[in-house]
Specification:
The chain is mainly alpha-helical and 443 residues long. It has helices at 2-18, 25-48, 54-65, 75-80, 82-99, 102-105, 109-133, 146-160, 165-175, 180-211, 217-248, 253-267, 275-288, 294-302, 306-318, 322-327, 329-351, 358-363, 373-387, 398-427. The longest helix has 32 residues, at 180-211.
Length: 443
């Protein structure tokens, strides 16, 4: 009862504060950050009493406060808080890489390759096929030739196959899970996201050529190579730098790593480097090749990241387009079901005959289902590339296509964390990891 009363009080104060016309855009941004921080914290406490993930509470607080429900947090505020979302993604990537012990993953490398090929790449084909079968329900296909319909289905299918290391990391941290299932889940989503980024860049160039967009295939190939190889090289350099700091300075390691994450999140995209890949490479280097102990960083990092994650997932909830979800619920539901089913079947094929623990064979596939940042980023790319100014006719499908992608992401954001938490609890790995729960606040 107390968390509910406090939540109502915070919402009332937010509404009262917004009623003053003297609030500047900068002040409004700070107000939104504070409100989302407190709102997410108290909402998580409430939903956790019903055995729902705290992550669901964070998302729900954003949905309720966002522009589609109570309108306490406006789109302008969420846009201004982009640095928080980018920094949180960078932190999660660094942690994901630091948790990825290649020696532990090596015995299941065959399984990871199988999951990547049969589940991840298989889902691209399955989703594209479902879209092609439903093209009569989607108006942007009406004036396209058969060839154009095929490539558009494929590029949307690749975008929709994206995973969310952020959600998987959050649920592993909340449940404090550790074991073979947790390792395979984490490794599979990291490898899957790298695969999706690469394939999407290639398919986007092909789609541009077929549709008649202004995309230079050679230039795009060079940009993809720079984004992948450059990001990995830059990430290794960052990992070396953090490793030196951990070995010789030690004090303030968490603050130093947080500063690195903020800097990479801010400048990475401006020099065509992917912050996610940069920090993943940094973390992998720290864990597997550096003489520094990555655990020293993780233990000091976990407690300091709570405010960033609360606001990050609340922002994700605030950006969910509920109107788009409701308007296209039938195709979105079909696509979401096709996506999950293809992950399930592909993972089962990948693990057939493989020497993996039964718990991995049973539950690992669901780590691929949650979606968040990457899929939304790819939706934005589609919208900008094929929906911007000067685009007409079939070359302007990007806006409607991005609506479908965002709708599927919204559905998965609401449903997947609940099921993932349930599976982790049933696996027997929950509670086995020692350390600070970033979602602390009472179970």
């Amino acid at each position: 009862m107390i968390p509910l009363l406090l939540l109502l009080a915070v919402a009332g104060l937010m509404q009262a504060a917004r009623s003053f016309s003297s609030v500047t855009p900068a002040g409004g941004t700070e107000l939104a950050f504070g409100f989302l921080l407190l709102g997410a914290y108290f909402t998580a406490k409430i939903v956790n009493r019903f055995n729902l993930p705290k992550l669901t509470g964070y998302l729900l607080s954003g949905v309720l406060a966002g522009p589609f429900v109570l309108q306490l947090v406006t789109p302008t505020m969420t846009d201004a808080l982009k640095v928080v979302a980018d920094t949180a993604t960078a932190i999660l990537a660094l942690e994901a890489g630091s948790e990825l012990n290649l020696k532990k993953v090596k015995p299941v490398m065959r399984t990871l390759r199988g999951i990547t090929f049969f589940a991840v790449m298989g889902s691209m084909v399955a989703i594209a096929s479902a879209l092609f079968a439903m093209r009569g329900m989607l108006p942007f296909f009406d004036d396209m030739t058969l060839q154009q319909q095929v490539v558009v289905c494929l590029v949307i299918g690749v975008a929709l196959s994206a995973q969310s290391p952020a959600v998987v990391m959050a649920m592993l941290a909340e449940t404090r899970s550790e074991g073979p299932l947790s390792s395979v889940m984490l490794a599979s989503v990291v490898v899957a996201d790298l695969t999706v980024i690469t394939v999407f860049s290639v398919v986007l160039a092909i789609t541009g050529a077929v549709i008649g967009g202004e995309i230079d295939v050679q230039k795009t190939a060079l940009e993809v190579a720079w984004e992948l190889i450059g990001s990995i090289a830059f990430g290794v350099s960052i990992g070396m730098l953090i490793g030196v700091f951990l070995r010789y300075v030690k004090q303030g390691a968490a603050l130093f790593a947080l500063m690195i994450c903020v800097v990479v999140a801010e400048i990475g995209s401006r020099i065509s480097l992917d912050p996610l890949i940069v920090l993943l490479a940094s973390g992998i280097w720290l864990r597997n090749f550096s003489k520094a102990d990555a655990n020293d960083l993780l233990h000091s990092f976990e407690a300091a990241q709570l405010p960033v994650f609360l606001v990050f997932f609340a922002l994700a909830g605030a950006k969910l387009h509920l109107d788009q979800l409701v308007a296209s619920i039938i195709p979105i539901g079909i696509i979401a079901t096709t996506r999950a089913t293809s992950f399930f079947i592909g993972s089962k094929i990948a693990m057939r005959g493989a020497n993996v623990p039964p718990v991995v064979a049973k539950y690992a596939w669901f780590g691929l289902v949650p979606q968040a940042g990457l899929a939304l980023a790819l939706a934005l790319v589609l919208q900008k590339t094929f929906g911007g100014e000067g685009k007409t006719g079939v070359a302007a499908f990007g806006t409607q296509a991005s609506t479908i992608v965002v709708g599927v992401v919204a559905l998965n954001e609401m449903v997947a964390p609940v099921i993932l938490r349930m599976m982790l609890m049933r696996s027997g790995e929950a509670g086995k990891k020692k350390g600070v729960d970033f979602a602390a606040g009472g179970h």
